[in-house]
Design goal:
Rossmann fold; eight-stranded mixed sheet; 5 helices; 29% helix
Length: 222
């Protein structure tokens, strides 16, 4: 793999000129390196011209962890009803910036997948459902729909044909399956089509899930 890193992200370049991109946001306390090892396991063809971009979240104090400084896309408290709207919107703008960067580099928006795990998945859903141009798809892993009270009036109806794959562990102690399933239902009720997968795992990824993600990406970016 041809890997390069900056202060903003880890990037894996394909062997040939990229004609598609996957922007993958990590979870709380991790960084852009977290999902790099998964790329070879996705089973993409050797000639797949897909650039993988793994942004680093900023370092900020996280309330639920005693104010400890760590990489986080937004702050989290013990009360899920009190969401960090400024932080969520700030990180959504960061995601939008990475999408714009790929478009400026010659990748059409319809060849870009926005992906994320946990916190990163929440930003993926927030930004992707509001994005101004069509995307190849949204990949939301072990996550939920943030700011649901604003979703109905801010999500773009023209994005309802965006392919969305949501994966969740049935034994997730951090973000219970019910939270992910509720988020799925909210989006489905407003017209979005969700490909929903459950796996017997905790707050993590598993081999079966990685295989399903790879198949989904091959279909989206063929």
């Amino acid at each position: 793999m041809n890997i390069r890193e900056s202060e903003e992200a880890v990037v894996i370049e394909p062997r040939s000129k990229a004609n598609a991109a996957v922007i993958w946001l990590h979870g709380l306390g991790a960084d852009g390196h977290d999902f790099v090892p998964i790329v070879p396991e996705l089973g993409l063809p050797d000639d797949a011209a897909v650039r993988f971009v793994f942004p680093h979240a900023p370092v900020r104090p996280v309330t639920i962890n005693g104010g400890m400084q760590m990489r986080a896309w937004y702050d989290i408290t013990a009360d899920m009803r009190r969401q960090d709207e400024p932080g969520i919107r700030e990180s959504a703008r960061v995601a939008e910036g990475f999408i714009a960067g790929e478009v400026a580099a010659g990748i059409p928006s319809g060849r870009i997948v926005l992906a994320g795990f946990s916190q990163g998945g929440a930003i993926t859903l927030h930004a992707g459902l509001r994005h101004g141009q069509p995307l190849a798809g949204l990949l939301a892993l072990s996550t939920y729909l943030p700011l649901p009270e604003l979703y109905a009036k801010e999500a773009r109806p023209e994005r309802k044909d965006t392919p969305i794959l949501m994966c969740h562990g049935t034994q997730d102690p951090m973000l219970p399956l019910q939270l992910g399933a509720w988020s799925r239902d909210v989006m489905q009720e407003s017209g979005f089509s969700i490909d929903w997968r459950e796996y017997p795992m905790a707050h993590q990824v598993c081999v079966e899930e990685i295989a399903d993600i790879g198949a989904w990406l091959r279909e989206r970016l063929a």
